[in-house]
Design goal:
10 helices, 325 residues, four-stranded mixed β-sheet, 2 domains, Ubiquitin-like (UB roll)
């Protein structure tokens, strides 16, 4: 017997180490003494007691969750008419206006929650209202307000000028509760044309200008804060691909250095304003306005990519000297 055969026998399993049938299980080698739960009354009581810790744990954590939920309730308790309510809003809607709307009518806060919801949503500042009556009889009201992206001023037949706020959908509302600084910092829509009157008035071109202002406010807040006005003079509304259809944004002079020419206006095309906003966010405007050859006191930045108004394409964006209207 050679060395290779001896090594193979040495490392191979020995048969006498695996005595017994090949299909023998460990349960056959170890005596089993499993005491099953009796099926009588005593067994059922024992089974119920074995589940008692799980039931108590579920009750404990459910109670703890309810306590935490009540403790972090973000609604504010106020009094309206002859009843109490809890109130929350994602905007600035003032409590006195809410109390007035809830308390109006002969039943006041005791009227049906559907009627209260309808009264609240009649106000154009409120996009939607969730109203429910709590277990203690008080009301819970959660408001979602329209987001203001601009303001618009109008001069009625008599009285002072009226300033209203504009949502991205073009809905005008009073802006009740808004801080004066927040209203002052909103860009004003100018050179606009309207159809209708009052709260039903429609601003022509708002279907383009509203999403434009919302995108700038959300994605490019530093740029948006420098805008003082948005002119719709050259905006053709739904015909956004029409030649010469533009959005003209006036830039606040106070936000610019005094030792270089002023950027008075930025011109966006109505068809490509999304791309042009991204381009504007990457531009070094201060460096452009300090280049040699920039000698005019004020400039307009044109971001129109397609150059639809020019027979010979001109590279964009570009600065052109500002002219008076």
């Amino acid at each position: 017997m050679n060395l290779f055969t001896r090594l193979r026998q040495f490392f191979s399993p020995r048969r006498d180490a695996f005595m017994g049938p090949a299909d023998r299980e460990w349960r056959q080698l170890i005596p089993q003494d499993v005491r099953r739960m009796p099926g009588d009354e005593l067994g059922r009581k024992r089974a119920a007691r074995s589940r008692l810790p799980l039931v108590l744990a579920v009750i404990f954590f459910a109670t703890l969750g309810g306590i935490v939920w009540v403790s972090i309730d973000e609604t504010t308790a106020v009094v309206a008419g002859n009843g109490a309510l809890r109130y929350k809003t994602d905007g600035f809607y003032p409590v006195p206006d809410l109390q007035r709307l809830v308390a109006q009518g002969k039943d006041g806060a005791a009227k049906d929650v559907a009627a209260i919801k309808a009264d609240l949503e009649m106000d154009t500042q409120i996009a939607s209202a969730d109203v429910r009556r709590r277990g203690d009889g008080s009301l819970e009201i959660i408001l979602r307000e329209r987001k203001a992206v601009a303001k618009i001023a109008s001069l009625p037949g008599s009285g002072p000028m009226v300033v209203r706020l504009v949502s991205p959908e073009g809905v005008q509302f009073s802006g009740a509760g808004y801080p004066s600084e927040a209203i002052r910092n909103l860009p004003e829509i100018i050179d606009y044309r309207t159809s209708g009157s009052g709260d039903k008035a429609t601003i022509e071109g708002i279907e383009v200008a509203g999403p434009f202002l919302l995108a700038a406010q959300s994605a490019y807040p530093n740029l948006y804060r420098e805008w003082s006005a948005l002119s719709l003079r050259d905006c053709f509304g739904a015909q956004e691909d029409s030649p010469g259809s533009n959005l003209r944004v006036a830039v606040r002079r106070a936000s610019q250095p005094a030792d270089r020419p002023v950027l008075t206006e930025i011109v966006f095309s109505t068809a490509n304003w999304r791309n042009e906003l991204a381009i504007l966010s990457r531009l070094d405007l201060d460096g452009l306005l300090r280049r040699p050859g920039i000698t005019a006191p004020a400039y307009v930045l044109k971001l129109s990519i397609q150059n639809r108004t020019s027979a010979r394409p001109v590279p964009e964006p570009r600065l052109v000297p500002a002219t008076t209207r």
